[in-house]
Specification:
Length: about 850
């Protein structure tokens, strides 16, 4: 025992308990958990602060990472260079960080789990977003504390103009607790913050409607919102993530599964090994080969299947047994004033706003103090300039500077600061221009002082400053969501979850054969082309209904006798364009005396999705809320009441605020506002829409939403476009006006549709031929004309229907040909109307 030492005896269990508590609190507060204010752990904060002190801003050259690590280690974070470099590397990885905080130059690792190069080889600097984290740090906006050896000071938190905790998330394991916060979209978080600024009383449910779900840097799908909503409400939950995949048909009836995005924090190399091992052990059937074709342009994992494999079943097995589907467990634990707390979404946003309010207040106080100090000096200079001769005489009569200062203070009632500023003033400040500059600067300072005083006196005005800064950040750094939300209701391994949402073309024949296939099957052709063969139907059968929708829509089948049935699009078998299809009676139980007259794709049945507006052969129209059709049984329900000699012709999903266009077989048309059709119950007949001449009947009704031209096509393939303005807006129950001149050469009207010239048209004939073309290739003519030849057909063939497809920019190079050569184009459509219905 050394002289002067004192030994304190204590029970070892008490000593261990106290020491462990000290250690645990050190890990919790100073190592593992982020602060709710800036979303950073101490190591990340120290790295960014060190780079800031070194001047490694986005506009400056990169500097060796070893330099930053060494500076951080020596001055702020004495816990080993490996921990510092690992933390810095993560802030530079675009597959880990939703918004990068460090710009890296060199090998910083990969999504395959490859380690980064040694710090002596890589270079780094602050990312542009980090500048927003550090903005106003030199304006006394946050508290500083001594570093580990009391030689320097470091910020306790950063001013953080960005809500970093939520946009980048955080993960860490402390003692007895852990945090796991997912990243979110900057734009959504900023919108939620501005919503709270505008109305602090907004409840969390309204915030959840703005921030729908996390947004992961690797993209992928978020399967359902229940887990995200639970996490937002309670701070804890589980979010199911799924890879973005597609099934590509190859030769010899084989298919490939292509993976383009994987769940967050899934190691791609290990995922491929996992799939290969499961295929080898026969736990997943049908995999022939797997290879990684990823490059700098993006991720691409190709899983080749055997010819006997069912692609969707194999994909289901991959989701079930591999990390192509994974869970992110949320635990929104962060430090609030040094105390760990589990926060819900609104609490996290409120704590951030409180931090920003303190930052703006302290910054304004700092700027106000500096402005007052400068204004005080300028007041002294102005006094000196007003009395320059006396000032010069006083200075010249003084023995030294100290005496001159005292005399100036006594003679002109100045402060010491003002007197010193006068003594330090250069002679050139005596010019008239310099005097004007001083006076202008003084006036500007007075305005600034007044503004800052008003700002500090009003918390509401400070929140408006925060709001503007948040909007600036969103405008500068905001981007689109990367993670797509698959559906509102999450079900584990539901069929719909296993089927990618894609645009498809659905055909229904006169005898009730239905099928679906990718919309890209039909390439676009010029007007007058012969078209491409579609279904191989029986001689007495023909394609009667065609429409474009997505695999996740519901299909509402309306019969001519006004019954409605329901089916999911993905439940319709996918076949080649030459296949006949599946008999519809195998899918829905349509009565023998019934015939499908309208098919409407809809996304759901909530009241906010509008109405179903119907039209009958005799010209009756009816509008009913879509919510009344939510409980459709497999045997169908009645959609409206019909007269014995009437049939249901058309059905559309409408919003109640647009117009309706009705066309008849003999070429008449009427246009009126949808408001003239009052909402009715499901089992009603409706009101008269158009007054028909003898021998005439309605062939179609269309819903005018965005279109401004009417395309009419007759049985003999004659068609034209007419400006919608040529059809006057009339009252319901009128006879209408002439829409087209019907002659034996044209044949009666098959269909009329309101569209834009940029839309595509898919025309089908009774023999199953299909032509896809731009509507603008059809001549624009007046109402009283016949039109031009749209599709050339055999004498036994007639046009039976057409549907429209919006044109998507970047159409993948659809062949612009005018011949009848077969082949599959690569164009894509988007959900559009059907023969008698419309997509939601």
């Amino acid at each position: 025992m050394h002289v002067g030492e004192r030994i304190i005896q204590a029970p070892i269990e008490d000593e261990m308990k106290d020491s462990y508590i000290d250690y645990a609190m050190s890990v919790i507060v100073a190592r593992a958990l982020p602060d709710v204010a800036d979303g950073l752990k101490p190591v990340h904060r120290r790295i960014l602060y060190s780079m800031h002190r070194q001047g490694l801003t986005p506009g400056k050259p990169f500097k060796k990472s070893a330099s930053t690590v060494g500076d951080t280690l020596a001055k702020y974070h004495p816990h080993g260079e490996a921990s510092i470099y690992d933390a810095m590397v993560r802030m530079a990885q675009d597959f880990n960080m939703r918004y990068l905080l460090v710009s890296g130059h060199g090998n910083f690792g990969s999504v395959d789990g490859d380690p980064p190069a040694a710090m002596r080889y890589t270079e780094s600097r602050l990312a542009p977003l980090s500048v927003e984290l550090l903005e106003d740090l030199d304006k006394e906006t946050v508290d500083f504390r001594p570093n580990f050896d009391n030689s320097l000071e470091e910020p306790m938190v950063l001013p953080s103009r960005i809500p970093n905790l939520l946009i980048n998330g955080s993960a860490g394991i402390a003692v007895g607790m852990a945090t796991s916060i997912p990243p979110h979209n900057l734009g959504e978080i900023v919108d939620a913050l501005m919503c709270l600024i505008d109305n602090p009383e907004k409840d969390i449910e309204e915030i959840i409607r703005i921030v729908k779900a996390p947004d992961f840097p690797t993209g992928g799908y978020i399967m359902g919102l229940s887990g995200a909503r639970k996490a937002f409400r309670t701070g804890k939950g589980s979010i199911t993530m799924r890879a973005v995949t597609s099934i590509v048909e190859q030769k010899n009836n084989r298919h490939d599964i292509i993976v383009n995005e994987i769940p967050y924090q899934v190691n791609k190399a290990r995922l491929i090994e996992q799939i290969a091992e499961l295929a080898k052990e026969k736990k997943i059937q049908g995999i022939r080969d797997i290879r990684d074709e990823s490059d700098r342009n993006g991720m691409r994992i190709v899983i080749e299947l055997t010819s006997s494999a069912m692609p969707q079943v194999t994909l289901n097995q991959l989701y079930k047994h591999t990390n192509l589907q994974a869970n992110f467990n949320v635990n929104m634990l962060a430090l609030v004033d040094g105390v760990p707390k589990v926060l819900n979404l609104k609490e996290a946003l409120e704590h951030y706003l409180h931090h920003r309010l303190n930052v703006v207040r302290r910054r304004s106080q700092f700027e106000l103090r500096k402005a007052r100090e400068r204004a005080h000096i300028l007041e002294g200079l102005i006094i000196a300039l007003d009395n320059i001769d006396a000032v010069i005489e006083t200075i010249r009569s003084s023995r030294d500077g100290a005496e001159a200062k005292v005399k100036l203070i006594e003679r002109f009632h100045l402060s010491e600061v003002q007197a010193q500023a006068i003594l330090d003033m250069r002679l050139q400040r005596l010019t008239g221009l310099e005097r004007q500059k001083i006076e202008e600067e003084y006036a500007e300072l007075l305005r600034l002082i007044g503004y800052l005083e008003e700002l500090l006196a009003s918390e509401a005005k400070m929140y408006q400053v925060i709001r503007k800064e948040l909007q600036d950040v969103k405008d500068k750094y905001g981007d689109e969501r990367r993670s797509k939300i698959m559906r509102d209701e999450e079900t584990s391994f539901d069929d719909e979850d296993l089927i990618p949402e894609s645009e498809v073309f659905v055909t229904v024949s006169h005898q009730g054969y239905i099928k679906r296939f990718p919309l890209s099957t039909y390439r676009r052709q010029k007007r007058g082309g012969k078209g491409v063969g579609s279904s191989k139907l029986k001689e007495e059968d023909f394609v009667e209904h065609t429409f474009v929708t997505t695999t996740h829509h519901y299909l509402l089948f309306f019969t001519n006798k006004a019954k409605v049935y329901r089916l999911k699009v993905y439940e319709i078998p996918e076949m080649s364009r030459h296949a006949r299809g599946t008999f519809m009676m195998n899918l829905i139980q349509v009565g023998r005396e019934e015939k499908i007259s309208a098919i409407v794709p809809v996304r759901g049945f909530s009241e906010d999705l509008g109405f179903l507006t119907m039209c009958t052969r005799k010209g009756y129209v009816k509008k009913t809320s879509l919510a009344e059709y939510a409980n459709i049984t497999r045997t169908g329900i009645l959609a409206l009441t019909l007269d014995d000699d009437d049939d249901l012709i058309s059905v559309y999903q409408t919003n109640g605020n647009n117009q309706v266009f009705i066309a008849t077989r003999l070429g008449m048309g009427i246009r009126f506002h949808e408001e003239q059709i009052r909402p009715m119950g499901r089992v009603t007949r409706g009101v008269m829409g158009i007054k028909l001449r003898r021998g005439d009947h309605v062939v179609t009704m269309d819903y005018i939403e965005k279109g401004y031209q009417v395309l009419i096509i007759t049985e003999n393939g004659i068609g034209k476009r007419t400006p919608l303005d040529e059809y006057p807006l009339q009252n319901r129950h009128g006879t209408g006006v002439i829409a087209t001149r019907v002659t034996p050469h044209t044949g009666p009207v098959v269909k009329a549709k309101v569209l834009q010239p940029s839309q595509e048209v898919i025309i089908t004939t009774t023999c199953g031929y299909v032509i896809r073309m731009l509507a603008e290739e059809v001549s624009l003519q007046s109402r009283a004309t016949m039109g031009v030849i749209i599709i050339r057909h055999e004498e036994c063939d007639q046009v039976v229907n057409f549907s429209t497809v919006p044109v998507i920019s970047g159409d993948n190079g659809l062949d612009e040909e005018d011949d009848d050569s077969p082949g599959n184009g690569n164009g894509e459509g988007s959900p559009g109307g059907n023969g008698n219905g419309q997509a939601s």
